[in-house]
User: Fold these one by one.
Assistant:
Number 1:
Amino acid sequence: EIVLTQSPDFQSVPPKEKVTITCRASQSIGSSLHWYQQKPDQSPKLLIKYASQSFSGVPSRFSGSGSGTDFTLTINSLEAEDAATYYCHQSNSFPWTFGQGTKVEIK
Amino acid sequence: EVHLVESGGGLVQPGRSLRLSCAASGFTFGDFAMHWVRQAPGKGLQWVSGISRNSGNIGYADSVKGRFTISRDNAKNSLYLQMNSLRAEDTALYYCAKVSSGSWYGDAFDIWGQGTLVTVSS
């Protein structure tokens, strides 16, 4: 099973600052790495697919990069509505797995 | 508009069974692989099972293999999860999710339902 390790687990950031979340895979997964945002009491929402492709309707301040084992989600100029937990997800090999999540709080 | 609506959750005793359903609308259901993902209270996301568009490929997490069965009815635009021998650790909100481009491997989950809560307790 491919283990995805996100860092940090929690981040408290002032508005308009930049947020960087990393996701490291225990083995190479190419670009089959996706990022989701989940707000309290809501379903997860797709932000980035295939490591760097923005999903339709997602604000341009969200971007992704990386390939192989190391991936990054960046939120440029954090807004209050971005308070949420963010998960990475790999679909390169079974079983599909998720990172443990990174909670972003607005300071 | 694309919608996924789960149903069938509830309170069930350990060892009993439950069948979840996911009704799809707004897209050609038979063109896309579908998956179940669960989230225990206060915890992260866990992939449970997936099925390809023609049911030719099926996968399960080790924690549910042999107890859960995924299936689909493309004529009814519906996805199912038969859950047998339920355990307390199966307690979770169960989401169905659609893949973004139809593929079996490599794809993201672009649409999620609102989830149905399964509670396993005596």
Number 2:
Amino acid sequence: EVQLVESGGGLVQPGGSLRLSCAASGFTFSSYWMHWVRQAPGKGLVWVSRINSDGSSTNNADSVKGRFTISRDNAKNTLYLQMNSLRAEDTAVYYCARKADDAFDIWGQGTMVTVSS
Amino acid sequence: QSVLTQPPSASGTPGQRVTISCSGSSSNIGSNTVNWYQQLPGTAPKLLIYSNNQRPSGVPDRFSGSKSGTSASLAISGLQSEDEADYYCAAWDDSLNGQRVFGTGTKVTVL
């Protein structure tokens, strides 16, 4: 079964750090570009970051530039999102998603990140 | 952060046809393909439509997508109770260094 499973979310204080993981299974992970998308409570979907298939190219949304870093370990079939200098407005469910053709065809179940003192 | 505009809500009775619009610009919908996602309450989004009007396997043919110029639309024909969900359009945006942009979302209610 093709699957993405996120982990690493939790409660963190403003200014703190957190690393999210996304474990892939059921497909050739190293062949796909991967993305992170977040959704604040009661709000819409917002694209966060993307990485190409071999990890040599990344791009982030302006709202997280300089604070978040996307990376991947193709040997471990795992995608990461290192989040530093967290702010209250980063509070959201974070989804990892696989890009196929022009769309995100597979999504994880999401992991909740709460930034609060 | 949403640069694609959707109506906040839409509704219909079972069996009716509901249409959701998605308005963008020349840098996103005008020059790239459009996707549609369905998000049931408390769950992750699910791909409904890719490449403007293509359905992934398993998506009922009650769902159809179209695009014209800088706008797109999703139609749900033969509305069913299980279609009650949030729907989002999405496209790549050339003016934002190829970043992904989502629509504001539309809540569909089955009356």
